Amino acid sequence: MLYSQSDFSADEFTLDHFVGNTPLVRLQRMASHTQATVLAKLEGNNPAGSVKDRPAYNMIMQAERRGEIRPGDTLIEATSGNTGIALAMVAAMRGYKIKLIMPDNMSQERKDAMRAYGAELIEVTKQQGMEGARDLALEMQQQGQGLVLNQFGNPDNVQAHYLTTGPEIWQQTAGKITHFVSSMGTTGTIMGVSKYLKEQNPDIQVVGLQPEDGSSIAGIRRWPEAYLPSIFDRSRVDQIIDIPQIEAEKTMRKMAREEGIFAGTSSGGAVWASILLAEQNPGAVIACIVCDRGDRYLSTGLYSVED
């Protein structure tokens, strides 16, 4: 069959049409010893490979609609990786320049992906961390170098998950979900999904994850009080679990080997916590966020370790 150019002019053929609507799959082996159902939402299926495609797209599109930015402008953002990659993808799609600031200890794949989309990458030291990256982004904005989208304080981050991730999980579980589990970085995912799910059923338990003291898990943080994301509302989270780094890494590898789910460290932490909850709550239906794909962690050597 031959196609004409007009056949491909509809909105459903544009890249942004494929942000969201990711699969929710049941763990077949890792949670088989429990009497609960553990479901993993595979956010690596988004166009730029992570859950951050959702807020990245929404933050840029909403800013456009409000007239705050227009194609050709320069955007600035501090990121540990996934949001930066997603913003660079949307910036390329919509015609923006973008400067991304990140700690230099993030994986090489993340840095290369940002540059592949045309972003300018500015690195701060591991010691400066995300706090230093956020401070530098604001300094650059004050110097007139561009606009900071500020994923840590931008309501459009939360809105993205309220409008998409939450409704998808509710529909995919036919309203049977009892627990929602999410790692916390900017906290946009857990804030938006919690708001939506609690409106449907206030008894749903929302569980947030942070690294335990001394652990370093890419994408999630224990924020100092001064840097706690302003979009975070503690009342929307029923329980917070501290994730041991070694358990997150072991579970990440086990997911690939036993479930065929290839993901990053924070996703390993989410599945580890979900299985813990499954052991404690027979009959529960637990959905967790597998926020990205494992291929952006290969250079770290984490997948070469024998457990």
Automatic annotation (TrEMBL):
GO terms for biological process: cysteine biosynthetic process from serine. Pathway: Amino-acid biosynthesis; L-cysteine biosynthesis; L-cysteine from L-serine: step 2/2. Signal peptide: none annotated. Transmembrane segments: none annotated. It comes from the Bacteria. Keywords: Amino-acid biosynthesis, Cysteine biosynthesis, Pyridoxal phosphate, Transferase. It catalyses: O-acetyl-L-serine + hydrogen sulfide = L-cysteine + acetate. Gene3D superfamilies: 3.40.50.1100. The modification N6-(pyridoxal phosphate)lysine is found at K52. InterPro entries: Cys_synth, Cys_Synth/Cystath_Beta-Synth, CysM, P-phosphate_BS, TrpB-like_PALP, TrpB-like_PALP_sf. Residues 17-292 form the Tryptophan synthase beta chain-like PALP domain. GO terms for molecular function: cysteine synthase activity. The keyword Isomerase does not apply. Pyridoxal 5'-phosphate binds at N82, G185, T186, T187, G188, T189, S266. Its EC number is 2.5.1.47. Its cofactor is pyridoxal 5'-phosphate. Belongs to the cysteine synthase/cystathionine beta-synthase family. This is Cysteine synthase. It comes from Acinetobacter rudis CIP 110305.
